[in-house]
Amino acid sequence: MVVLNKIYTRTGDRGDTALGNGSRVAKHSARVAAYGTSDELNATIGVARLNAEGEMDAALARIQNDLFDLGADLCTPDIDKDEQAEYPPLRMIEEQVKRLEAEIDVMNADLEPLRSFILPGGSALAAHLHICRTVSRRAERKTTELASTEEVNEWAVKYLNRLSDWFFVAARHSNDGGKADVLWVPGANR
Questions:
Q1: Any idea where the Cobalamin adenosyltransferase-like domain is (predicted)?
Q2: 37-53 confidence digits (pLDDT tens)
Q3: What are the residues whose beta carbons fall under 8 Å from the beta carbon of 110, sequence distance 6 or more?
Q4: CATH 3.30.360.10 fits 31-79+89-177, yes or no
Q5: DSSP per residue over the chain, as a string?
Q6: Segments making up each domain of the chain, as ranges
Q7: pLDDT tens for residues 127-164?
């Protein structure tokens, strides 16, 4: 259980922060950049939810919760020590990725195949979901950058990869089932 009764601690005043295992790293480290970007994504979803209703809002709420799981996963290094830990850290799991895939399949079933790239926009919700998609891609880039030098849970990377696809399909779904998608016209302004 998390208890936050004092928000400022002054422990990071020198530019470092504590990870989930208690070790300290620079606030600009690749690990902090990865989970910090997932936190930024979570905030963009909060804005998107201002325009969402029903199942879309519920799905976005599930993703926001997953992103806290992702942050907990990314802020705790030493995956190889998980089994020996008295309190094993929270890690992303295959079922979270599979849930995204199932939701993508349901939303995509009613969409016409794309014959052109689409421009981000259309409805307010779709435009916000496209912002979520691009921030999700950045979170994925930051996480794979971290994975190039440190061990990262493979399901964390897979989740982020699937999540950006989820946002793309959700944006189309939110554009009247793709009918309000704004299509790219190559060379239109030459």
A1: 7-173
A2: 999 999 999 999 999 99
A3: 173, 177
A4: no
A5: ----S-S--STTTTSEEE-TTS-EEETTSHHHHHHHHHHHHHHHHHHHGGG--HHHHHHHHHHHHHHHHHHHHHT---GGGGGG-SSPPP---HHHHHHHHHHHHHHHTTSPPPSS-EES-SSHHHHHHHHHHHHHHHHHHHHHHHHTTS---HHHHHHHHHHHHHHHHHHHHHTTTTTT-EE--TTTT-
A6: 31-79+89-177
A7: 999 999 999 999 999 999 999 999 999 999 999 999 99
